[in-house]
Amino acid sequence: MKRRKGIGVKGRTGGVRLILLDTSALIALSDRKDKNHERAVKFFNEAVKKTRFVLLKHVLIEYVDGVTKRVGKGKAIEELENILNSRLVIIEFEKRRDWENAIEYFKRYDDKEIDLTDCLSFAIMERLKIKEVFTFDKDFRAHGFITLPRVHNSFRFV
Length: 158
Description:
Layout: E1 17-21, H1 23-30, H2 37-47, E2 51-56, H3 57-70, H4 73-84, E3 89-92, H5 96-108, H6 116-128, E4 132-134, H7 139-142, E5 146-148
Helix pairs in contact: 1-2, 3-4, 5-6
């Protein structure tokens, strides 16, 4: 297994677009029965040409734990190895300040059902100056991030 460093404050990306990869996107990509599977695969295949995906440690844990419980340990290990060995994914770890900011956001959103996991993602995204997230979770929009793939509202005049 190759160990990669995080992307740092300004990002060591060589001009490549960085998009956060959220649990809902990972699930949609891997589960053909997921309602967002086709949209996720289409977006991923288009974005991968010019994008690197930032995967946060806690999101990776959440995803692998979910696969372990729902599908089985063998599949979870396979998924984990695929992610750890991917050249498309940069794994980023939280810092103490990210944790402190996440707790503040969690308290701030007391009127919404935004969980602590997402709040930690918000804090790390801000530190890394990442504005876009590959997700099907609307909570990221509440904090001002751009969710991808974009939702296209269709208007119909009758």
